Amino acid sequence: MRMDNKIDPKELEDFPDEERPLEYQTETGSLNIFGFWMFLGAEIVLFSALFGTYFVLIFRTDSSVLPTELFDMGLVLAMTFTLLTSSFTSGLAINEMRLGNARRMMIWIGITLVLGLGFLGMEIYEFVEFASEGATLATSAFWSAFFLLLGTHGVHVAMGVAWFIIILIQIKMRGLNPVTANKTFIASLYWHFLDVIWIFIFTGVYLLRLVIA
Amino acid sequence: MDPAWDEFIITGEPFILAGQIAILVTTIGIIFILTYFKKWKWLWNEWITTPDHRKIGIMYIIASLLMMIRAGVDAMMMRTQLAAPNMPFLGEAQHYNEIFTTHGTIMIIFVATPFLIGLMNVAVPLQIGARDVAFPFVNNLSFWTFFWGAMLFNISFVIGGAPDAGWSAYMPLASNDLSMGPGQNFYLLGLQISGIGTLATGINLVTTIIKMRAKGMTLMRMPMFTWTTLITSLIIIGSFPILTVALAMQTFDRLWDAAFFTLQDGGMPMMWVNLFWLWGHPEVYIVILPAFGIFSEIITTFARKRLFGYTSMVFAIAAISGLSFLVWVHHFFTMGAGPMVNSFFSISTMAIAVPTGVKIFNWLATLHRGRIRFNVPMVWALGFIPNFTIGGVTGVMLAMAAADYQYHNTYFLVSHFHYVLIAGTIFGCFAGTIYWWPKMFGVKLNERLGHWVFWLFMIGFNVTFFPQYFLGLDGMPRRIYTYFPEDGWFSLNFLSTVGAYMMGFAFVLLVYNMYYSYRYEKRETSGDAWGGRTLEWATSSAIPPHYNFAQIPEVKDQDAFWQMKQEGVDPNGVEEYQDVHMPNHSGNPFVMCVFMFIGGFGLVFHWWTIGIIGALGIFACMIQRSFSRDDGHIVSAEEVRKEEAEIREGQANENG
Amino acid sequence: MSNGTAATKKGHFPWKHVVGFISSIVLTLVALWIAFYSAFSVRTIIVLIFSLAFIQAALQLLMFMHMAESSNGRIQVGHILFSAFVAIVVALGSYWVMEFGIHLEHHM
């Protein structure tokens, strides 16, 4: 609501040291960012339920193949660094956006997208590998919890990729304005958040399971 | 699973056949009336696509009332079946199982929650002096996810078979092995779809309340209903994702052979119970806290006194919200977790009684020396205090883990939660509806009928549920479909059934009162129907204009409107009108939710193609929304001035 | 394309992001080392690697996501802390309850 009502800069001193960034310039934009933080709170709880289930079912492999035989830390590290780097590059995109460089911003988003797709590729490879060794969603309680947690994260990444593509098209069509800047900023928040979740997957899914084996 | 057509549509049950005929006749009737009076366009433009918080609130309330009728009929059937030993009324246990399952699920998910959300929608933006909620488009979407989720759950009654594993759907009872057929899938997908909307509403309301309050309204000047809405919305954000995950896991177990809660492959049925109550207990507070807020508003208005202990009230709500996440195990003490676990949850549960007690005393102290008017909303609020306290006290009895082994799964528990949910939530919903009715429809509900409704319902409620405490102590388990004469439970059960019919009659009278008052009651002329204290009563007309306030009022006190009236300030005495920016209508949410319904229906029957069509439709709507440039529209200062002048003229004619 | 309203910054180099990125990589490698090459007890290892994960998450939220900026920064931070509280209750609480209150070491 109130798209074109610019906030009176004197009224709110949100950014005392600098000018108000583009994505915060409309009231709608400001509401969207705040609302998205509320949504991220919900996402934290969503993943915590998946993690909790994984912890509870962590020894319940039944007679299926053991995760210690399948987890490949080399691949996991590659995925971790890919996603970490993509989080960094999407941060750089926002940095450029705040400097007003639309072209450079789009390049960094493009790099983020490539890294994101690379991550998805590796994850799909990992899942196919595991399935060929006999570990699927239906194998045992442990593997159900593993695939649902990792799968939910993977679907989030895929949604993030699609979202960035849609935003890139809109920036191409309409230029960098308060509306598109706002969308880009929120999508980048989402992308960083997926990296935060991955940190816990790296620790709580892979490291933890191998440590207690 | 490929059900044959005679399994697809349920046949051979007289009650279900009656239901099918009723649904068919009603549907044809609605279509005929809409077509005959050429109302399709009106319905689409004025209601289905509306971003207006008040209209969305009204739609929530109407839908919840319809759901209440449906689940109320279930309750009547249960009580009839249990009226005497060996009753042949429902025939077999299966039918009874389905009825108590749908009764519980609908009452919690499709009545209590949306009813309160409807009242929040009507009142909160007005109370904080906003023109609408933060995300009007999402608000419309939330309503339709609730509506289509409820529809998906409800058609299980006639298509495919209703779920029968209880509203808590414990595994392994709800698994494919023990709940065959698609019934349980309807439960999973219906709740999943409506859960999305509830979460979105939570986010929407937090953003609205934090970011869109009128100038001068600090957090500690917010009306109590706005406070409870804020805290409730935070609990929604913290708890509904857990339900989403739990439902998804059970769906995977049932549809794709996952092993989360199964008995084989290392699954853990009690993990479902754990996750369900991790959501379920906060949900209890989601449906009680707003009711507390409603009673606070009503008690201050009709006692004509400032709320006693405002600050302690706020801290009590905040404390309840934090504790609500730390008590879930008291729903399954009998799982037999270690003494540490059960002791911890026993103590945390009892601790909740402390802030709740603070609130009860605050209400009593507010009444003390108030100049009380006994209007209908007030009698509901006064009825709430003693009745809810009975529920609360028995709750503390249940909180003692060792004693709970005796009470667990008996009618003592059934009576306890009906005492808190009816005397708290349902009384609150009724009181709030009657209180804000003039805000919604510009007319008060008839007071004489209203008092009749209250006394019949309140007495009926106690006649129904008070005997159930003793049935429970006498060992009658819940969820049994019949009992024997030698059990000795006949007289109390019969009494309970009599009370249930009283409540049913009172509810019918309430609905009739809505019709009667709309036809015959005097229209309200001002926005201040009850001598209110908060901003929702400061609007220029009884039904607020669609922009709510021509000029956003400035708040100087906790009881903002009361203070204005004391100082003779007219909140609508605007000198210079300004342009007002309002959100646009959109049909996108409705279409998106129809696709959710279609997709969910496909999944229920394992029809993957239909499921994929639903998913693609949802994505298409999301992309359409992302690309559409929806900047809202401007209502010019001139139009606002004209509308305000018309309102004033109308009032002058009425008064003189 | 750009209207350049926000293009008046002093430092152009994104120090915050670079520091955040490098520390993320270092923390990841440290966690890896602790998990597989250190001589700590299993319990200590679990505590340490989860602490590192929380530190890294906080870095991301503050360095990359600007969680604390704008007039609602404090509310945003408060909300994320509330969600983290609920998340810990859900994840650890479930474990504690479903293990019937028996300690983790029981399995080792």
From TrEMBL, chain A:
Organism name: Natribacillus halophilus
Annotated catalysed reactions: 2 a quinol + O2 = 2 a quinone + 2 H2O
Entry's family note: Belongs to the cytochrome c oxidase subunit 3 family.
One GO molecular-function entry: oxidoreductase activity
EC number per UniProt: 1.10.3.-
GO CC annotations on file: plasma membrane
GO biological process, one term: ATP synthesis coupled electron transport
InterPro entries, sorted: Cyt_c/ubiquinol_Oxase_su3 (IPR024791), Cyt_c_oxidase-like_su3 (IPR000298), Cyt_c_oxidase_su3-like_sf (IPR035973), Cyt_c_oxidase_su3_a-hlx (IPR013833), QoxC (IPR014246), Ubiquinol_oxase_su3_dom (IPR033946)
Bilayer disposition of the protein: Multi-pass membrane protein
Record Gene3D superfamilies: Cytochrome c oxidase, subunit III, four-helix bundle (1.20.120.80)
PANTHER family registered for this protein in UniProt: CYTOCHROME BO(3) UBIQUINOL OXIDASE SUBUNIT 3, CYTOCHROME C OXIDASE SUBUNIT III
PROSITE patterns: COX3
Enzyme superclass (EC): oxidoreductase
Protein task: Catalyzes quinol oxidation with the concomitant reduction of oxygen to water.
Compartments, record wording: Cell membrane
Sequence intervals crossing the membrane: 34-59, 71-94, 106-125, 145-169, 189-212
Descriptive protein name: Quinol oxidase subunit 3
Any Pfam family hit: COX3
Ranges where the Heme-copper oxidase subunit III family profile domain occurs: 34-210
Alphabetical keyword list: Cell membrane, Membrane, Oxidoreductase, Transmembrane, Transmembrane helix
From TrEMBL, chain B:
Membrane topology: Multi-pass membrane protein
Cofactor requirement: Cu cation; ferriheme a
Keywords: Cell membrane, Copper, Electron transport, Heme, Hydrogen ion transport, Ion transport, Iron, Membrane, Metal-binding, Oxidoreductase, Respiratory chain, Translocase, Transmembrane, Transmembrane helix, Transport
Keyword Nucleus attributed: no
Domain Cytochrome oxidase subunit I profile: 38-556
Keyword Lyase: no
Metabolic or biological pathway, per its Swiss-Prot or TrEMBL entry: Energy metabolism; oxidative phosphorylation
EC number: 1.10.3.-
Coiled-coil ranges from the UniProt annotation: none
GO molecular function: copper ion binding; cytochrome-c oxidase activity; heme binding; oxidoreductase activity, acting on diphenols and related substances as donors, oxygen as acceptor
Protein name stated in the entry: Quinol oxidase subunit 1
Lineage, broadest ranks: Bacteria, Bacillati, Bacillota, Bacilli, Bacillales
From TrEMBL, chain C:
Catalytic activity: 2 a quinol + O2 = 2 a quinone + 2 H2O
GO BP terms: aerobic electron transport chain; ATP synthesis coupled electron transport; electron transport coupled proton transport
Keyword Membrane: yes
Keywords: Cell membrane, Membrane, Oxidoreductase, Transmembrane, Transmembrane helix
Transmembrane feature ranges: 18-39, 45-65, 77-98
Major site of localization recorded for this protein: membrane
Family: Belongs to the cytochrome c oxidase bacterial subunit 4 family.
The name this protein goes by in its record: Quinol oxidase subunit 4
